[in-house]
Amino acid sequence: MTATAFWTLLKRDLLLALRRRADVLTTFFFFVIVVSLFPLGVGPESDLLRSIAPGVIWVAALLASMLGLNRLFASDFADGTLEQMLLTPAPLGVLVLAKVLAHWLVAELPLVMVAPLLGLQLDISTEVVKVMWVTLLLGTPTLSLLGAIGAALTLGVRGGGPLLSLLVLPLCVPVLIFGAGAASAVAAGQDVQAHLSLLTGFLLCALVLAPVGAAAALRIALD
Amino acid sequence: MNWGSAQAFFDMGGYGLYVWGSYGMTALGILLEFYLVRRRRRMAEAQSHRRQLLDEDNT
Amino acid sequence: MERVEVQRSGGIWRYAAPAAFYPLAGKLAPWFFALAIVLTVVGLYIGFFVAPTDFQQGESYRIIFIHVPAAWMSMFLYLIMAFWCGVGLVFNTRLSFMMASALAPTGALMTFIALWTGSFWGRPTWGTWWEWDARMTSELILLFLYIGFMSLHAAIDEVRRADRAAALLALVGVINVPIIYYSVKWWNTLHQGASVSVTAGSKMAPLMLQGMLIMSLAAWMYCIAVALMRVRAIIVEREAGAAWLNEAVA
Question: Do A167 and C151 touch (CB under 8 A)?
Fold first, then answer.
């Protein structure tokens, strides 16, 4: 029963997202533009760009995820669907997980897939690009999960987007440190096992705990 | 006593700016906080008083 | 979350009601202020007139008498704030949430002072106004956590929802603080090798330690005093119009 609810909600959200492609594409282009701004800001010298590139791409991914998370619960909140979700027998955490997964597939997976191209644009070596790609793959779901808590807390609140970012970005710092750090480690010829293990650990913890937190936050918002 | 003169005290062995800059900001912060809390309390009491008067008018 | 209604009437539980806590806080606050002042005078006397000059850092080390107490308070206050948030969410007691809101601004101030004094200490000691070492960076993130708490609370109009949302945020924050701290510590050692923070490596003369501990106690007293004052203001704000308040405030 819970599994059905999960898949139904996932499919529904994916369908809705595909119908509102514009939202998703703006996040995508935001990511690309932000990465392109850094060379314009710091100068085109390739050694400098190569050294800051993984960090830049990671921060841009972080900011782009924060942007999109506002919408996670907003439309369901507006049309009353969210209240219905609170009333279903399926655990709210599972429903949250379905929504977050749909959001990640549509809004963040494209970022992860285009990141290697941006990496090449900033002249990172293929070694580093590979590691960066893996860290983004492991890290962005964690960012979405943490962001879901923020989205639930700021549901319908004034100052929405920036407020959400203010609340969630500090929590994302460990993911950023190990995600971007892994790429730097590879560039310096060091081993990245520890980074990847930690990122996986963060993801697993987030998968279990974040839906609980977000569900609690939703109940607080809707009571 | 550590200091030969008042001048030496203010000078802090050449680190006067840093030491007094720190203590000064701290004092400023504390005084500001104190003032703001008092002000908050005063405004809340005034608000409460106005509410009370309004309630009395309505009964 | 399940709401547990706790019904207790006698003894110390009486003070869980804002109406009873208000006068108690009013009586206690001046005492804590007095203690804070006395301890500060003693602490600074020791700090400036008894403790010797530091062998390595000269007179600039005297900033620790503020920096370390402020840093400790910034962390303790966050923990206590999160504690009251947890109590409020479980027992649904209004006063717990009010206490958490009362602690936040003071915690933020302590964090700011820790950062400011840390910066002013770092400049003559290490040459830069800012050092991205583990403690300073974690302290900065802690400031963001405090600001986030206060911003979320301020952004939600309905007080009950604001209290509970901010409370949840504080709990999520407190779980993350150790993770953030260790991540930043690791990040720092990776990028800067054996970078030493301003507080490490200096052997503290007993008198310096004494001064610092007394100042830490002074900071505790001050923070308790201000929190009691502020919670009184919050009680008045929220209970405006209640009969007991009209008598107490008239």
Answer: yes
Name the packing angle between helices A46-69 and A109-121 (round to 10°). Answer: 160
What pLDDT shows up at residue C194? 44
Closest residue, chain C, to B41 (C-alpha):
C233
Closest to C241 (Cβ–Cβ): which among B34, B40, B51? B51
Altogether, the residues listed in chain A come to a count of 223
Q: What is the pLDDT of residue C192?
A: 55
**Rounded CA separation C182/C138 (Å):** 9
**Chain B contact set for C241 (CB, 8 A):** 48, 51-52, 55
- Interface of A to C at Cβ within 8 Å reads 149, 153-154, 157-159, 163, 166-167, 169-171, 173-174, 177-178, 181, 184-185, 213, 216-217, 219-221, 223
C-beta separation of C74 from C139 below 8 A: yes
Q: Taking the CA atoms of C192, C193, C197 and C202 in sequence, report the sign of the dihedral they define.
A: negative
ipTM (interface pTM): 0.91
Residue A196 confidence class, pLDDT cut points 50, 70, 90: very high
Give A-chain residues touching C141 at CB under 8 angstroms. Answer: 170, 173
Burial (Cβ within 10 Å: 0-12, 13-18, ≥19) of residue A110: middle
Look up residue C231 and give its DSSP letter. H
Q: Whole-model pTM?
A: 0.91
A61 and A31 Cβ atoms separated by less than 8 Å: yes
